[in-house]
Amino acid sequence: MAKEYKNILLKISGEILAGDTGNTYDNSITSQIVNDIISIKKSGVNLALVIGGGNIIRGINHKELNLTKNNADQMGMLSTVINGIFLKNILLNNQVKSVLYSSFSISGIVKKFNQEEARDAMNDGHVVILVGGTGNPYFTTDTTAVLRALELNCDVLLKGTKVAGVYDRDPQKHSKVNKFTKLDYNYVINNNLRIMDMTSIVLAEEASLPIIIFSIKKKNELRKVLDGEADFTIITN
Question: Which of 53, 65, 145, 146 is the most buried (most CB within 10 A)?
């Protein structure tokens, strides 16, 4: 690996799981993600995974759904639990040890997150799947990802998206764009770049947690990121 990352946290949005099908889940993309996870686990890294719920419901859409923000965010947190159960089963079906923790417990379904227990599970080779957001409305799963990365002593946060990094303009809307290879936290904050929510960026800056933005839709890209061979943007000091 280009840089030795022992403990990593991977953040995936719920929309990624839906792919381009318009369905809740796209079997091709979920199979690819699992295969990529298997590949990096073979290299000996410890992996935690934060999943969003946007393929089911997004709290940001509360007005069009005629919901209060609180209720929409609560529904969004529950949707991440559904996605976590889904991913856990796919991983287990592929002989990948995994364990699911939520910011809130649902008796008989998911245990509440315990920092020491989750660390032990990671060190024992389990993929630790983290759901339920922070457990509070008004916080995104980006903030959850940074928070859990710090709690689990992760060396880096990898955010798998639809595009290969951070651009000066939306590459899905503009043909001529420039991609950043490296950014510092202050540039992201001062220029209000909507890569992640600002709370998560500030939290990462305070802890000097590097963030790598890459396209998880590309096969083997997760492994290439860790090997320093992928096309990505890193946010750091």
Answer: 145
- From the list 159, 160, 185, 163, the residue with the least C-alpha distance to 172 is 163
**What's the pLDDT tens digit per position in 147-171?**
999 999 999 999 999 888 998 877 7
First to last CA, the chain: 21
Distance CA 12, CA 127 (A): 14
Whole-number Å distance between alpha carbons of 83 and 69: 21
Query: What are φ and ψ of residue 127, in 5° steps?
Result: -80, 120
Residue 14 near residue 164, CB atoms below 8 Å: no
Q: Which ranges of the chain would DSSP assign to H, the alpha helix?
A: 14-18, 27-41, 69-93, 115-123, 141-151, 185-190, 198-207, 221-226
Residue 167: count of CB within 10 angstroms of its CB: 18
Instruction: Give the dihedral sign, CA 214/219/225/230.
Output: negative
Query: Using CA atoms in the order 121, 126, 132, 133, what is the torsion angle rounded to 10 degrees?
Result: 90
**pTM score:** 0.93
Tokens at 171, concatenated: 């590459």
DSSP assignments along 161-176, one per residue = ESSSSEESS-TTT-SS
Q: Is 85 helix (H, G, I), strand (E, B) or coil?
A: helix
Q: Which amino acid is at 154?
A: C
